[in-house]
Each structure stands twice: as C-alpha cells, then as structure tokens.
Structure prediction request, 110 residues.
Amino acid sequence: MIADYLRRIGFLRATLMLTTVLLIFLAPFAGGHIQTSGWPLITTLLAPVFFAIFIFVLCLDMLMTRVFMSGSSDAERQRLTMIFRSEALLLLVLLVSWAPFVLALLRLRE
Prediction:
C-alpha cells in the first residue's frame, strides 16, 4: 500500500513529503543555544532554515498540482487530487508542529 502510494506520487514528491515528515519530527528539538558543530547543528540551524524553505516549496508544488489538474483526464485528476490533499495535510501538520518555535522567536523580538 505505501509502496503503491509512493509510486503514484513519484520520486521527487515522495522525497519532498518524506523530508517534510522528518522536519515535523525535528520540530520539538528546534531552538535553544545555536550550535555550529556536531549533531545539534541540525536542530539549531538546519531544521529551522529548511522549515521556512519547505513552506514555500510545498505551497509551490500544491499550486503546480492545481495547474496540472485543470487540463488532465479523470484518472490523472484523481491522482493529482490525492497529491494535493496529502501535501495540504503535511503543510498543516508542519505549520502546527513548528508553531511553538515560531512563537518563541516572535517573543524574543519584543
């Protein structure tokens, strides 16, 4: 079932979605004192940067999915609808999981 789903969405989208899931799991560990070496580099520097980038990448892919959906057959439209819903769900979960980090950043600015 999962292999069929990954085959239907394609390699690049599967990579995009799996990396988004990884960012969701890294969200609770983000923040704190910035580390410039070792494994803490991932949670203090890289994950927050990729979080911001992936918001735009997911939105862009959702937009392009909608564009391709307009001139496609019924079977292709169903596949693209599944992709669009999956990405929308992942975007929502990504935003919710990183909300505490973003709110903590906004409190530091005040």
